[in-house]
## 1
Amino acid sequence: MCKYKALFVLFLTVLLSSCSNTPTTTEIILPVSSAQGDINKGIIIAQEKDFQKAIIFFSSSIDKNSKIAEAYYHRGRSYQKLGNFSKAQQDYYRALRLNIRYPEVHNSLGVLYTSQGEYRNAIDSYTTAISFNQSYAKPHINRGVVYFREGSYQKALFDFTRALEIEPKSTLALKNRANVYSKLGAKNAVCGDLKQLCQFGNCASYNKLTKIDYCND
């Protein structure tokens, strides 16, 4: 009996010893899920502009877990890059059904509407994107472009200026704001933005205007 008791005590001691070596919750490194892993691979491939292959990975992620809004968003962007606007729109809607507060999706949907000339829908989408992320420069730039096309120059000026407050080195915002200033006849402001643009390495427009003495004051 003592023999068995000793064995039991020995077993319990070993068990407790192994438990004490188990890593805590904060020490455990959880593997990336298979579905998320496919999204990550798809993003890398999309950056290489192989959108057809990227779609395969995003679709694989959706097959494994249909509740990840990110997969639909990125697949929608790939479809949009390929010119398949119908499938892109469907994926954006699916992403928003899973997460209505997804500013990047609203912005991409706005880009899609803009490309189709649906300016009112585009402005609504950009405005929604901004409402969910006040520090998101892209929808300000994109909405400003639509306002510019409509001839709403003051609204466009506001958006490009706001984008530059968020991202002071945004060459796209500077180029567009210079165009607005040009429409408004604000010569000094045009030259100021183009000079700043030149400081970021894009001097073509500024050099062209200095050659004709437009920006030599």
## 2
Amino acid sequence: MNTSNPLNKSHKAGKSKAVISTIIAALVIGALASCREATPPTTEKKPAVEKNQGDLTKLQGKWTCMADWGQRWVKEINGNKETFTIFSEGEAVYSHTHTVSVSKQGPVRIYATSAGQITIGEHKGEATEPFSFIYKLNNGSLIEGLGLLDEVNHPGNESRIVTWKRPQD
């Protein structure tokens, strides 16, 4: 059994990763700012919940991805609840649950978590900090830009792009 904390592993990313993260952050911040400037005020109010409920519906179910260091990550969204689990060598070594909400500002979609709780791992029972990230649904893939909107307090603790797929089995 792997007893090391999978969330605290550090990986050397090099300068190119830092540059890419900086460029992505600048694009996101620019997109958010341009959305505010380019969206004219309107008297017709469309409920944001309605627009966002469509994305939340599309996000429902199970998503998986393989981390660079051989771990399998699984996220399952049921209603507005998410369970995130890390598997190493076929064994669940970490898991947490939290409540999620999605929102949209112009072309930018934001996925936000509330404080949750660790359910598997050395810190089982402890609270998790809320975090948020930008995301995109693209032909059956869920693409997340982690660490661009918050201080880096999300799983993995670094800026990164994560692509999730629906499991085939």
## 3
Amino acid sequence: MILIGSIVSSMQTPEEDIEINVTKVSKSKKYGKKPGTAIEVGTVGNEYDYLAQLCGPNGERIKYERIESCCAFKCPSCPMGSGLLDKWEITYTGLRKPMIIYLNGYLYDDPEAPVGLGIKSDF
């Protein structure tokens, strides 16, 4: 356990102190829905902060589950020069089919909510 913890903490990027504040919904229907349009949240810990700010389009409470890490990509600023995306399944009452989104815990670019989701008003 201690070894795993030290490995994880050694992989943190300088962006770990960035506070996630989702303020708008993307205009692109592709945003976050494919590996090439992954939502850049800066750290793996920020993935949870990001997801906690989302809701269904009418304020529905969402449930989210990480399915897997996948989709290796080259990243000169990442440990070992590459990174993996995390694939998440999003559900909420009334959604016919679960939504899949991809999050990048290595790079940061002012994340937005993907089309089909909203932003909780208490954030």
## 4
Amino acid sequence: MNLRQYIAIMFFATTLCWVSLLFVVTNIDPFAASLVAFVFFYLSLFLALIGTISLVSLPFYNKLGANELSLHRFVRKSFRNGLFFSSILTILLIMRGTQTFHLWNVTILIIIFSLVISLNISTNSYS
């Protein structure tokens, strides 16, 4: 798969995720919704954010990165960052929705994600 095919598939999938999020937001009443509705909301938001952040950060990595690195490494880095940032944002929204959004919880979450990112970077010598 070349870069053009990857971007086209990722753009199409991200668009579908944003459409599904719009469908969930417009058709489900949050006051009368069950747990399944909230799972659909957070899952579609999570997937839409992964695609959006990955697609937005890919040109920056491609232009600002070293020229000797292969393109699949830039794609991998942008997808990894999209995964991490969308995970943080989605977890923060879940915490806000369940009334557990407190300073200590957010601090612990940021420390955990910082450790995971540091571990990921230190184990991959080519990242």
